Amino acid sequence: MSESSKRVRVMVVDDHTLFRRGLISLLSEFQDLLVVAEAGDGNQAIDLITLQKPDVVLLDLNMPFMDGISTLSAIRALDLPVHILMLTISQADEDLMGAIRAGADGYLLKNTEPEELRKSILRVASGQAVLSPEVTAPVMHALSRKFTNPAATLISERELEVLGCLTEGLTTHQIGSKLFISENTVKTHIRHILDKLDASNRTEAVSKAVQLGLIKRKN
Fold first, then answer.
1. pLDDT value of position 2
2. How far apart are CA 114 and CA 16, in angstroms?
3. Does 1.10.260.40 match the CATH number of domain 4-138?
4. CATH of 149-211 given 2.40.37.10, 1.25.40.10, 1.10.760.10, 1.10.10.10
5. Which of 4, 15, 5, 3 is nearest to 58 (CA)?
6. pTM higher than 0.90, yes or no?
7. Lowest mean pLDDT among 23-32, 127-136, 143-152
8. DSSP secondary-structure letter at 201?
């Protein structure tokens, strides 16, 4: 068996060229890792992954054309024996839980120390799951909600915030202003809430959310 065949084959997917090249340079210093491909967006990643057959994909979250979650879902649809480790700056609960639901094997922040990154790649390659310490709490919180109320795991933290605004009778514009998000984003969250709670309108969604103990109705 050749020396290179013993190394974990890594693919780096990140739209920031300087970060991507710096990361590749860093990984090349580790004798147990071998970078076999790089991509600047999800579309490129999908094209390359079947050719290069990496063991582990380091995947950014915020990218143009196809974001990290969409790329992750597309890779999983290929049904390849590849492990996917998200490497991002986002600590948002919806990004973290979205990645986990889409099939990520790990979620690391970009401030991770080099040696810890190396160990995490090796753990993921061996079938283990890894999380940055900073994002462990939301996962534990989601698990506790799952056991106490399975329906609660369907609703993201941001959607709970939107539900709270709905209990106050706020309009789409007012919700957007309060949460500092666009009206289109508010509408998307509300649509997802209605689907997840099987509600036909905002009033019914609020009523079901209160019954499930997800939120408390405003007096």
1. 46
2. 18
3. no
4. 1.10.10.10
5. 15
6. no
7. 143-152
8. S
